[in-house]
Amino acid sequence: SRCMTFLVHRVPVAQIIARLGHICQLEGIVAEPSLLAAIADRADGGMRDAVMLLDQARSTLVSEGLTLENFVRVFGDFDTAPRIVAAMASGDFPAMYAALADAIEQAGEPSAVIGKLADCLSDLLVLCSGGMVAVQGTPLEARKALAARLDAARLTRAMSALWDYQTKVR
After folding, report:
1. Which of 38, 46, 112, 119 is CA-nearest to residue 76?
2. Which pLDDT tens digit goes with each residue over 98-135?
3. Which residues contact 142 (CB under 8 A, 6 or more apart)?
4. What is the DSSP string of 108-165?
5. Cβ proximity of 124 and 88 under 8 Å
6. What is the pLDDT of residue 1?
7. Model confidence, pTM
8. pLDDT value at position 26?
9. What is the rounded distance in angstroms from the CA atom of residue 139 to the CA atom of residue 44?
């Protein structure tokens, strides 16, 4: 028949960072390693998306410099889940709702935010148990700090509540 199946897997963050570093070296681009890690995380396994983000950052931030701080200022903070979880864990509900509103505004739909929260909680559970996660750079540091503050039982309850919510929304 004329239909073929192509299994396309996400490219690991470390490989995307290495490729972006190689591109920067070839093109003479000076970028902070933390920026490359942030771009790789934001690309969510898509090499083409990562290369396009690097190109957009280079053309947009040419005068300010390719730093993570400048990137976040112009393109927004894409890793909002740790901020939401941290506010929730601290009981700072006004900050949690503000972070949720920012995340939904940036993502455009609540289901994307729920997916990011689920990924973050999963990462935190893995880190609490001594495992390794795919994120790197600033997102990894944020998750490590949260994992040190939270216990696995509390994270499991939060994950269960999130899954219940996802099921009811569907």
Report:
1. 38
2. 999 988 888 778 888 888 898 899 999 999 999 998 88
3. 79, 82, 83, 86
4. SSHHHHHHHHHHHHHHHHHHHTT---S--SHHHHHHHHHHHHS-HHHHHHHHHHHHHH
5. no
6. 59
7. 0.73
8. 95
9. 13
Cα(96)–Cα(84) distance, integer angstroms: 5
Q: What is the mean pLDDT of the chain?
A: 88
Query: In the numeric block, which tokens belong to residue 84?
Result: 């939401």
- Tell me: pLDDT of 170 over 70: no
The Cα 29–Cα 55 span in angstroms is: 10
Residue 7: Cβ within 10 Å count = 4
Average pLDDT over residues 58-80: 85
Task: Measure the CA–CA gap between 86 and 33, rounded to whole angstroms.
Answer: 25
**How many whole angstroms separate alpha carbon 48 and alpha carbon 88?**
34
Average pLDDT of the segment spanning 39-44? 88
How far apart, in whole angstroms, are the C-alpha atoms of residue 65 and residue 31? Answer: 8
Let me know the angle formed at the C-alpha of 151 by 107 and 68, rounded to the nearest 5 degrees: 40
Kindly write down the DSSP assignment for every residue of 90-124, as one continuous string.
Answer: HT-HHHHHHHHHHHHHHHSSHHHHHHHHHHHHHHH
